[in-house]
Amino acid sequence: MIISNEKMQIEYFVKGSGEEDIICLHGHGRSVDDFDFLNTEFHRLILIVLPHHGKSNFPEERIEREPLTIESFNQIFEMIIQKESITDFHFVAFSQGGRFVLSLLPFQKNKVKSVHLISPDAMDYNSFYNRASRVWMARRLMRSFEQDPQRFINGARFFYKLGLVRPKVFSFIQKFAATKESFQRASITWRGFRKIKTDMKALENILSSKPFRFIIIMGRYDQVIRTKQARLFLKKINQPDALIEIECGHNFFKKENISLLMPHIQIKKGT
Protein backbone atom coordinates (compact mmCIF):
# COMPACT_ATOMS: atom_id res chain seq x y z
CA MET A 1 0.00 0.00 0.00
CA ILE A 2 1.04 3.61 -0.62
CA ILE A 3 0.05 6.63 1.50
CA SER A 4 0.85 10.14 0.22
CA ASN A 5 0.86 13.52 1.92
CA GLU A 6 2.45 16.81 0.81
CA LYS A 7 4.54 15.16 -1.96
CA MET A 8 5.90 12.55 0.45
CA GLN A 9 4.81 8.98 -0.04
CA ILE A 10 5.25 6.02 2.28
CA GLU A 11 4.94 2.39 1.28
CA TYR A 12 3.83 -0.15 3.85
CA PHE A 13 2.82 -3.80 4.02
CA VAL A 14 0.41 -5.70 6.24
CA LYS A 15 1.12 -9.32 7.19
CA GLY A 16 -1.02 -11.54 9.38
CA SER A 17 -4.40 -10.98 10.99
CA GLY A 18 -3.80 -11.45 14.72
CA GLU A 19 -5.15 -9.27 17.54
CA GLU A 20 -1.85 -7.63 18.46
CA ASP A 21 -0.74 -4.92 16.02
CA ILE A 22 3.03 -4.54 15.70
CA ILE A 23 4.36 -1.57 13.75
CA CYS A 24 7.87 -2.27 12.46
CA LEU A 25 10.43 0.14 11.00
CA HIS A 26 13.50 -1.33 9.34
CA GLY A 27 17.14 -0.24 9.29
CA HIS A 28 19.04 1.65 6.61
CA GLY A 29 19.39 -0.38 3.45
CA ARG A 30 17.39 -3.21 4.99
CA SER A 31 14.06 -4.78 4.06
CA VAL A 32 10.85 -5.00 6.06
CA ASP A 33 11.20 -8.76 5.57
CA ASP A 34 13.65 -8.65 8.50
CA PHE A 35 10.59 -8.75 10.76
CA ASP A 36 9.01 -11.87 9.29
CA PHE A 37 10.04 -13.81 12.40
CA LEU A 38 7.32 -11.85 14.27
CA ASN A 39 4.57 -13.11 11.95
CA THR A 40 2.55 -15.42 14.21
CA GLU A 41 -1.16 -16.18 14.52
CA PHE A 42 -1.44 -13.63 17.35
CA HIS A 43 0.16 -10.74 15.47
CA ARG A 44 -0.66 -8.39 12.64
CA LEU A 45 2.46 -6.72 11.27
CA ILE A 46 2.35 -3.20 9.86
CA LEU A 47 5.68 -2.93 8.03
CA ILE A 48 6.59 0.67 7.22
CA VAL A 49 9.17 1.37 4.53
CA LEU A 50 11.35 4.36 5.39
CA PRO A 51 11.79 7.23 2.90
CA HIS A 52 14.27 6.51 0.08
CA HIS A 53 13.72 2.77 0.41
CA GLY A 54 11.38 0.73 -1.76
CA LYS A 55 8.59 2.98 -3.06
CA SER A 56 8.77 5.40 -0.12
CA ASN A 57 10.00 8.82 -1.13
CA PHE A 58 10.64 12.31 0.22
CA PRO A 59 11.33 15.02 -2.41
CA GLU A 60 15.10 15.37 -2.80
CA GLU A 61 14.74 19.03 -3.74
CA ARG A 62 13.38 19.75 -0.24
CA ILE A 63 16.29 18.21 1.66
CA GLU A 64 18.34 21.40 2.01
CA ARG A 65 15.68 24.04 2.57
CA GLU A 66 12.97 22.00 4.35
CA PRO A 67 14.17 18.53 5.38
CA LEU A 68 11.83 15.90 6.75
CA THR A 69 10.53 16.64 10.24
CA ILE A 70 8.97 14.24 12.71
CA GLU A 71 5.79 16.34 12.68
CA SER A 72 5.45 15.74 8.94
CA PHE A 73 6.24 12.04 9.26
CA ASN A 74 3.75 11.70 12.12
CA GLN A 75 0.99 13.08 9.89
CA ILE A 76 1.49 10.29 7.37
CA PHE A 77 1.95 7.78 10.21
CA GLU A 78 -1.47 8.81 11.56
CA MET A 79 -2.95 8.27 8.11
CA ILE A 80 -1.64 4.71 8.12
CA ILE A 81 -2.98 3.77 11.55
CA GLN A 82 -6.37 5.31 10.71
CA LYS A 83 -6.57 3.44 7.42
CA GLU A 84 -5.74 0.16 9.16
CA SER A 85 -8.14 0.87 12.07
CA ILE A 86 -5.37 0.60 14.66
CA THR A 87 -6.29 1.76 18.15
CA ASP A 88 -3.14 0.64 19.97
CA PHE A 89 0.06 -1.09 18.93
CA HIS A 90 3.57 -2.28 19.71
CA PHE A 91 6.70 -0.74 18.16
CA VAL A 92 9.60 -2.88 16.94
CA ALA A 93 12.37 -1.09 15.08
CA PHE A 94 15.96 -1.58 14.00
CA SER A 95 18.79 0.95 13.66
CA GLN A 96 17.56 3.88 11.50
CA GLY A 97 13.98 2.79 12.15
CA GLY A 98 14.72 3.30 15.85
CA ARG A 99 15.49 6.95 15.18
CA PHE A 100 11.93 7.41 13.90
CA VAL A 101 10.33 5.49 16.77
CA LEU A 102 12.16 7.47 19.45
CA SER A 103 10.97 10.68 17.78
CA LEU A 104 7.40 9.45 17.29
CA LEU A 105 6.83 8.42 20.90
CA PRO A 106 5.73 11.84 22.21
CA PHE A 107 3.05 11.93 19.47
CA GLN A 108 1.88 8.34 19.90
CA LYS A 109 2.34 7.79 23.65
CA ASN A 110 -1.34 7.06 24.31
CA LYS A 111 -1.51 4.31 21.69
CA VAL A 112 1.77 2.53 22.41
CA LYS A 113 1.65 -0.83 24.26
CA SER A 114 5.37 -1.67 24.12
CA VAL A 115 8.61 -0.53 22.48
CA HIS A 116 11.39 -2.89 21.40
CA LEU A 117 14.33 -1.08 19.79
CA ILE A 118 17.18 -3.04 18.22
CA SER A 119 20.44 -1.07 18.09
CA PRO A 120 18.59 2.21 17.45
CA ASP A 121 20.19 5.09 15.58
CA ALA A 122 20.38 8.66 16.93
CA MET A 123 20.71 7.90 20.64
CA ASP A 124 23.40 10.61 20.66
CA TYR A 125 22.18 13.63 18.70
CA ASN A 126 25.48 15.40 19.39
CA SER A 127 27.75 12.68 18.03
CA PHE A 128 30.07 13.68 15.19
CA TYR A 129 27.91 11.69 12.75
CA ASN A 130 24.77 13.62 13.72
CA ARG A 131 26.38 17.03 14.25
CA ALA A 132 28.07 16.91 10.85
CA SER A 133 24.71 16.38 9.13
CA ARG A 134 23.62 19.77 10.48
CA VAL A 135 26.63 21.55 8.92
CA TRP A 136 25.95 22.88 5.42
CA MET A 137 29.51 22.40 4.16
CA ALA A 138 29.60 18.78 5.37
CA ARG A 139 26.35 18.03 3.54
CA ARG A 140 27.71 19.67 0.40
CA LEU A 141 30.88 17.61 0.64
CA MET A 142 28.89 14.39 1.08
CA ARG A 143 26.79 15.23 -1.95
CA SER A 144 29.94 15.78 -4.02
CA PHE A 145 30.91 12.13 -3.43
CA GLU A 146 27.63 10.75 -4.77
CA GLN A 147 28.88 10.37 -8.36
CA ASP A 148 32.18 8.80 -7.28
CA PRO A 149 31.77 7.02 -3.92
CA GLN A 150 35.23 5.48 -4.27
CA ARG A 151 36.61 8.87 -3.27
CA PHE A 152 34.65 8.62 -0.04
CA ILE A 153 36.00 5.11 0.60
CA ASN A 154 39.55 6.36 -0.01
CA GLY A 155 39.06 9.15 2.50
CA ALA A 156 37.61 6.73 5.06
CA ARG A 157 40.56 4.37 4.46
CA PHE A 158 42.98 7.21 5.28
CA PHE A 159 41.27 7.82 8.64
CA TYR A 160 41.04 4.06 9.23
CA LYS A 161 44.83 3.72 8.83
CA LEU A 162 45.28 6.55 11.33
CA GLY A 163 43.15 4.60 13.79
CA LEU A 164 40.35 7.18 13.76
CA VAL A 165 37.80 4.82 12.17
CA ARG A 166 37.08 1.44 13.74
CA PRO A 167 37.50 -1.67 11.51
CA LYS A 168 33.80 -2.61 11.63
CA VAL A 169 32.79 0.96 10.81
CA PHE A 170 35.15 0.96 7.84
CA SER A 171 33.59 -2.29 6.63
CA PHE A 172 30.16 -0.68 7.06
CA ILE A 173 31.30 2.31 4.97
CA GLN A 174 32.64 0.04 2.24
CA LYS A 175 29.31 -1.78 2.09
CA PHE A 176 27.19 1.35 1.67
CA ALA A 177 29.64 3.06 -0.69
CA ALA A 178 29.99 -0.02 -2.90
CA THR A 179 27.67 1.40 -5.60
CA LYS A 180 26.42 4.84 -6.60
CA GLU A 181 22.87 3.80 -5.73
CA SER A 182 23.62 2.60 -2.20
CA PHE A 183 25.91 5.55 -1.46
CA GLN A 184 23.37 8.05 -2.76
CA ARG A 185 20.72 6.56 -0.48
CA ALA A 186 23.12 6.76 2.48
CA SER A 187 23.92 10.38 1.62
CA ILE A 188 20.29 11.40 1.11
CA THR A 189 19.08 9.83 4.35
CA TRP A 190 22.01 11.25 6.34
CA ARG A 191 21.29 14.72 4.98
CA GLY A 192 17.52 14.43 4.87
CA PHE A 193 16.84 12.91 8.30
CA ARG A 194 18.93 15.44 10.23
CA LYS A 195 15.84 16.99 11.87
CA ILE A 196 14.57 13.66 13.17
CA LYS A 197 15.68 13.78 16.79
CA THR A 198 14.59 12.46 20.17
CA ASP A 199 12.94 14.84 22.62
CA MET A 200 14.86 13.51 25.60
CA LYS A 201 12.85 15.29 28.29
CA ALA A 202 9.52 14.28 26.78
CA LEU A 203 10.72 10.68 26.46
CA GLU A 204 11.87 10.61 30.08
CA ASN A 205 8.49 11.94 31.24
CA ILE A 206 6.57 9.42 29.13
CA LEU A 207 8.57 6.46 30.39
CA SER A 208 8.26 7.55 34.01
CA SER A 209 4.47 7.84 33.78
CA LYS A 210 3.50 5.09 31.31
CA PRO A 211 3.70 1.43 32.38
CA PHE A 212 4.50 -0.06 28.95
CA ARG A 213 7.55 -2.23 28.25
CA PHE A 214 10.47 -0.24 26.81
CA ILE A 215 13.72 -2.02 25.97
CA ILE A 216 16.80 -1.51 23.85
CA ILE A 217 18.51 -4.62 22.50
CA MET A 218 22.19 -4.27 21.61
CA GLY A 219 24.79 -6.59 20.14
CA ARG A 220 27.77 -7.20 22.38
CA TYR A 221 30.09 -7.07 19.35
CA ASP A 222 28.31 -4.28 17.48
CA GLN A 223 30.90 -1.69 16.45
CA VAL A 224 28.53 0.36 14.29
CA ILE A 225 26.21 1.38 17.15
CA ARG A 226 27.87 0.40 20.42
CA THR A 227 26.40 -0.69 23.73
CA LYS A 228 28.21 2.19 25.42
CA GLN A 229 25.97 4.62 23.50
CA ALA A 230 22.86 2.79 24.68
CA ARG A 231 23.99 2.87 28.31
CA LEU A 232 24.63 6.62 28.20
CA PHE A 233 21.32 7.23 26.45
CA LEU A 234 19.32 5.14 28.92
CA LYS A 235 21.02 6.87 31.83
CA LYS A 236 19.92 10.25 30.44
CA ILE A 237 16.28 9.16 30.23
CA ASN A 238 16.42 7.43 33.62
CA GLN A 239 15.91 3.91 32.22
CA PRO A 240 19.22 2.14 33.07
CA ASP A 241 17.55 -1.27 33.37
CA ALA A 242 16.07 -1.18 29.86
CA LEU A 243 19.22 -2.53 28.19
CA ILE A 244 19.46 -6.11 26.88
CA GLU A 245 22.72 -7.28 25.32
CA ILE A 246 22.95 -10.35 23.10
CA GLU A 247 25.89 -12.20 21.58
CA CYS A 248 26.05 -10.73 18.08
CA GLY A 249 27.26 -7.79 16.00
CA HIS A 250 25.13 -5.31 14.02
CA ASN A 251 23.48 -7.92 11.80
CA PHE A 252 20.73 -9.12 14.12
CA PHE A 253 18.78 -10.81 11.35
CA LYS A 254 21.10 -13.62 10.41
CA LYS A 255 19.40 -16.94 11.10
CA GLU A 256 21.61 -17.76 14.07
CA ASN A 257 21.05 -14.30 15.60
CA ILE A 258 17.25 -14.27 15.29
CA SER A 259 17.10 -17.13 17.77
CA LEU A 260 18.95 -14.88 20.24
CA LEU A 261 16.70 -11.94 19.49
CA MET A 262 13.27 -13.58 19.62
CA PRO A 263 13.05 -14.32 23.38
CA HIS A 264 13.46 -10.62 24.18
CA ILE A 265 10.63 -9.33 22.00
CA GLN A 266 7.76 -10.22 24.27
CA ILE A 267 4.50 -9.54 22.49
CA LYS A 268 1.84 -12.07 23.33
CA LYS A 269 -1.90 -12.21 22.84
CA GLY A 270 -3.64 -9.77 25.15
CA THR A 271 -0.48 -7.86 26.15
Amino- and carboxy-terminal Cα gap: 27 Å
- Could you give me the name of the CATH homologous superfamily of the largest domain? Alpha/Beta hydrolase fold, catalytic domain
Write down the overall geometry: globular
Tell me the structural class.
alpha/beta
User: What are the low-pLDDT stretches, counting only 5+ consecutive residues below 50?
Assistant: none
Report on the biggest sheet: 8 strands, mixed
Gross CATH architecture of the largest domain: 3-Layer(aba) Sandwich
Determine the fraction of residues in helical runs and give it as a percent range.
Answer: 25-40%
Radius of gyration equals 18 Å
Number of helices: 10
Q: If you average the pLDDT, what whole number results?
A: 90
Strand content: 15-25%
| Count of individual beta strands | 8
- Count of discrete structural domains: 2
Question: What series of H and E elements makes up the topology?
Answer: EEEEHEHEHHHHHHEHEH
The strand line-up of the biggest sheet is 1-2-4-3-5-6-7-8
Oligomer: single chain
CATH level-1 class of the largest domain: Alpha Beta
In CATH terms, what is the fold-level topology of the largest domain?
Answer: Rossmann fold
Helix-strand blueprint:
Layout: E1 2-5, E2 8-15, E3 20-25, E4 43-48, H1 70-83, E5 89-94, H2 96-108, E6 112-118, H3 128-133, H4 136-144, H5 149-161, H6 167-176, H7 180-192, H8 200-209, E7 213-219, H9 227-236, E8 243-246, H10 255-261
Parallel strand pairs: 3-4, 3-5, 5-6, 6-7, 7-8
Antiparallel strand pairs: 1-2, 2-4
